[in-house]
Amino acid sequence: MRLLIADDHGLVRDALSSHIERQAPGAVVVGAASVDEAVVALRQDKAIDLLILDLRMPGMNGLDGLQRVRTEFPLLKVALMSGLARPDEIRGAFTRGAVGFLPKTLSATELLSAIQTMLAGERFIPADVNTADTADGASFTRREREVLDYLLQGRSNKEIARSLELEEVTVKLHVRGICRKLGAKNRTQAVMRAVEMGIAS
Amino acid sequence: MRLLIADDHGLVRDALSSHIERQAPGAVVVGAASVDEAVVALRQDKAIDLLILDLRMPGMNGLDGLQRVRTEFPLLKVALMSGLARPDEIRGAFTRGAVGFLPKTLSATELLSAIQTMLAGERFIPADVNTADTADGASFTRREREVLDYLLQGRSNKEIARSLELEEVTVKLHVRGICRKLGAKNRTQAVMRAVEMGIAS
DNA sequence: GGTTGCTCTATCCAAAAGGATAGACCAATA
DNA sequence: TATTGGTCTATCCTTTTGGATAGAGCAACC
User: A159 and A95 in one domain?
Assistant: First the structure.
């Protein structure tokens, strides 16, 4: 079993590899501090079974880093790891071919069994991550959903109106509807609620 | 040697303790997921030699958590640990009596020697902490960081002013500073940038 | 037919946010 | 000593946002 852990925190990297190598005899863990380093390591070492990619690190740029790795090494198993991830990121990781998502709240023993699961060819999705769409909570109308997309980019009512070919008043109407449904006092709070609830697409 | 590691990421906690216990025979490492849990553990276990506190975790609230621990356990050695190391926070940690600052970019062996150093009664200050000012993207001042925390809750300038006992104008000043540093046009865009960059914790 | 929900627009108004400029204090530093 | 950076405040001003109220078109449904 050969693992490559890509995380810009040397401490996390070393501690993880040390732990895994102790708990799983025969395991070899290699480290990388960026996506670039990971790619170099993968080119040199064709025997790597699983790559664990930190979501927030140099070269990741959202899920671009995952995309890059998947494009160059389409057969490689890749798992994402993150302390704080938005549900849309988790969904995006799986649609881009990741075999697992590892929140850092996982215990070390859970991590080991997750690695076993993924090496066995299964996907690992922890129970507490919310990958669900908007089934729960607020239900938006078509327009509200569109406006919310722009809100999540921090656009002003005027900009949204121009983009959707509406009057500014109408945009305000939908913004108010969104805030009401999310229990938010203003657009900024609405955006944060949306992120927390994983509505952010 | 008894260590208490307070970090809300179970993975980091377990991996670190596993590593330390292997490298330093006789060491006992206890974990806590929040400042509250750490305080409870410290009350029960009077033999703890060193507390390692993650800077970004529930109950920390800047350096308040450190202050709390120092007030209740003035003789305890406390080291801070953090992924992003900003000079003002590091200085603040030392003025509040911390015996060391551990950036997560440290290697695991460096960590072990840092622990030895601190247990021997010396302070541990990594070499690169003063130069690593604007390493990755935005570096906020103390006030900006406080204001950003409220921005991330969708609070208005007036509310923030009341909470921080400032005038509204001053809050606006800091909000503008935050937006400038994040390249955001307004507060909503600023919070989204912060979320995307993983500054929101 | 009538009702309901989504849509769009309009006209008000008040509050909040954003921006510019300027003065002042203090601590650290060159 | 002079300077710089962070902090706080003030006075202007414009733009944006939020909120209320009201009217109208349209499609789905009972």
Answer: no
Per-residue confidence (pLDDT) for residue B128, from 0 to 100: 54
Asked if A154's CB is within 8 angstroms of B108's CB, the reply is: no
Residue-wise pLDDT for B76-95, tens only, equals 899 988 765 455 567 667 76
- Strand D bases, protein C-beta under 7 A: 6-11, 16-22
Residue B182 parent element (H or E): helix B168-182
> Nearest Cα to A80, choosing from A68, A93, A70?
A93
CB contact under 8 A, B18 and A108: yes
Domain that holds residue A41: 2-120
Distance from residue A169 (CA) to nucleotide C8 (C1'), in Å? 9
Looking up residue A177, the CATH number of its domain turns out to be 1.10.10.10
Question: Which residues in chain A touch residue B195, judged by CB atoms under 8 angstroms apart?
Answer: 86, 192, 195
Chain A residues lying within 8 Å of B198, measured CB to CB: 55-56, 83-84
Residue B8 has pLDDT above 60, yes or no: yes
Range 139-178, chain B: CB under 7 Å to any strand C atom: 156-158, 169, 172-173, 175-176
Give CA–CA dist B179/A25, Å, rounded: 50
Residues B168-180: pLDDT tens digits? 899 999 999 888 8
Distances (CA, A) of A16 to A132, B16, B84, B102: 29, 7, 19, 17
The verdict on A12 and A93 lying in the same domain is yes
* B38 inside domain: yes
pTM for this structure?
A: 0.49
Element (H, E) at B144: helix B142-151
What pLDDT shows up at residue B14?
84
Shared domain check, B151 and B115: no
CA of B109 to C1' of D17 (A): 54
- B63 in the same domain as B150: no
Banded pLDDT at A131 (limits 50, 70, 90): very low
Residue B50, SS3? strand
B110 and B176 together in one domain: no
